[in-house]
Amino acid sequence: MNSYRAPIEDLRFLVFDVLGLPESLPAGDALDRELIGQVIEEAGRFCAGVLAPLNASGDREACTLADGEVRTPQGFPAAYKAYCDGGWAALACDPELGGQGLPIVLRAALDEMMAASNHAFTMYPGLAHGAYEALRHHGSDALKARFLPNIVSGEWLATMCLTEPQAGSDLGQIRTMAQPRADGSWSITGTKIFISGGEHDLTENIVHLVLARTPDAPPGTRGLSLFVAPKHLDDGRRSDPRNAIRCEGLEHKMGIRASATCVMRFEQAQGWMIGEPHRGLAAMFLMMNAARLHVGMQGLGHAEAALQLARAYAAERRQGRAGAGAGPDLLSAHPSVQRLIADQRALVEGGRALALWTAYQIDVAETSGDAEARQRADALLALLTPVVKAFLTELGSECADRALQVFGGYGFMVETGVEQHLRDARIARIYEGTNEIQALDLLRRKVLGDGGATLARFVEEMRASADAAPGEASTRADSTRALADELLGLSQWLGTESADDAMLPARVAGEFLRLTGLAALAMMWLKIEAAAARRADDEPMARSKRALSMHYFDYVLPQAHACAAIVRNARTPTDTVFAGEP
Ligand SMILES: Cc1cc2nc3c(=O)[nH]c(=O)nc-3n(C[C@H](O)[C@H](O)[C@H](O)COP(=O)(O)OP(=O)(O)OC[C@H]3O[C@@H](n4cnc5c(N)ncnc54)[C@H](O)[C@@H]3O)c2cc1C
What we know:
There is one protein chain. By secondary structure, this protein is α+β, with helices and mostly antiparallel strands. Among the domains are: 8-129, Acyl-CoA dehydrogenase/oxidase, N-terminal domain (Butyryl-Coa Dehydrogenase, subunit A, domain 1), CATH 1.10.540.10; 156-278, Beta Barrel (Butyryl-CoA Dehydrogenase, subunit A, domain 2), CATH 2.40.110; 435-572, no CATH class. It is 54% helix and 11% strand. Strands 3, 4, 5, 6, 7, 8 and 9 form a seven-stranded mixed beta sheet that branches. A two-stranded antiparallel ribbon has the order 1-2. Strand 4 (177-180) and strand 5 form a beta hairpin. It is globular and about 80 Å long. Bound molecules: flavin-adenine dinucleotide. Flavin-adenine dinucleotide binds next to strand 3, strand 5 and helix 12. Flavin-adenine dinucleotide is lined by residues 159-163, 168-169, 194-196, 253, 261, 427, 430-431, 434, 436-437, 440.
């Protein structure tokens, strides 16, 4: 079933009314409101019209491998050409490199709509932006000139080659080796697994970013260096010599089946180092942060698309009696179904606001002339990147699951399309750093690591949103202030307790991340209410936003108290459960 409708109205409301684009951006003078509106609408048309129709067929057909060449499903090469011709690859890239220089906020909006329409397709261009960032910030001038223009135009796609059979979350175990060559380049040898888009037929050349060890490298992550190794050498054309990089196998997967997940063998492949020796992980992290926001948008995209299916179904299926009437009533009239849908809407619309506000911090951090504003945006971005990645990808699975429930038995059938969202959404919680790793990054590194200084900036932002909330939202503003106090108090308590119980943060990092996500959505709902209050009272958008905000605070936000209670209760080490077992 292909019925995806891009959430244009909501995106316009968030971008213009909540974020205040273009005036609120440091480089806003150069942007015009009409252009931003057109970009959002065109992006929606491309996703709904070109990508969504290939979603179910791509899932059925999947990719095939013959003689080392991967064929993507029918329609994918043409859709990728349309993506490049439409300028979508270059949307938020530097104009000096052929990009359009538009805000990252718009890139994030595009990412959500692409994932909602066809997650598997997004896997091909998905890592290009991260490769662009890693090369732009760490590559030599020669590497930038050779690779960046082709990545920006979309002519070449990129991969991220980290994972090996023995090295998943723990990249310190990577064994791929890089030996120096006389001409200053390197010979890379090793096997990488689970590589998205490692081989395909969408572009002439594929640019692999590879983590490997030099012969003098110390053990662990401190010994890793980053290399770029193209599929075709010289000018990167199909007729140019092939580098010694081969796809040895395709994984058969539970979801995103139209995305080629490859086993890649590098056999003395020629590569060039990006940045300093042994500083590869730092360069790769730049790529991963961009990728983590992108993965958060995948979760949001599934949540939105599954919600649309559930709402449409509930509005046409009649079962049972919802009230005193004769029945049978529409599913949408039953309070329990209404709950399933309303909770999802409050989470999706709040989640979209949070994701775009986080992307907006990248725009401020990169372009503001004010050092204090840049520093503040950087701090908020650092704190919220793992939250957006993990909270929104959990949301993707949760919403797809609830949407399937609205369909009853029909949801279990392939034809309705909702089960594909449940399958496809699942991977986003695993790759780009599993959600457990995100939670540890948030609590150990970003919150406890700096004694709560970054968290304090976020809490200030929560309080400022409560102070700016309209009068009718005063109870919700009070709840948000109380939650801000709870977050700070809890982090201080964890800091003190972990002095005696070092494993405590690791036991409760998941709850702490969920609590932060729920608190961030409370803040966003207050920002949304403030924007809605500036519109006429009876405007449908203003009314709907107010009602959803109330629903969020009444039915969803109380989960935050359960998270806080679990954190404070978690005194008993988890290994006591296993004590005495053989
Ligand atoms: C479809 C797909 C596409 C992928 N694409 C790419 C790609 O393009 N490039 C690439 O390099 N990789 C890619 N990956 C690999 C992906 O990033 C890894 O699967 C992921 O990092 C987890 O590693 P692992 O599978 O080895 O799991 P493990 O690291 O073995 O983890 C297993 C479980 O243990 C938990 N765990 C592990 N270590 C810790 C810890 N320190 N603290 C707490 N919990 C922990 C994890 O959260 C997880 O629940 C892809 C994977 C898939 C399935």
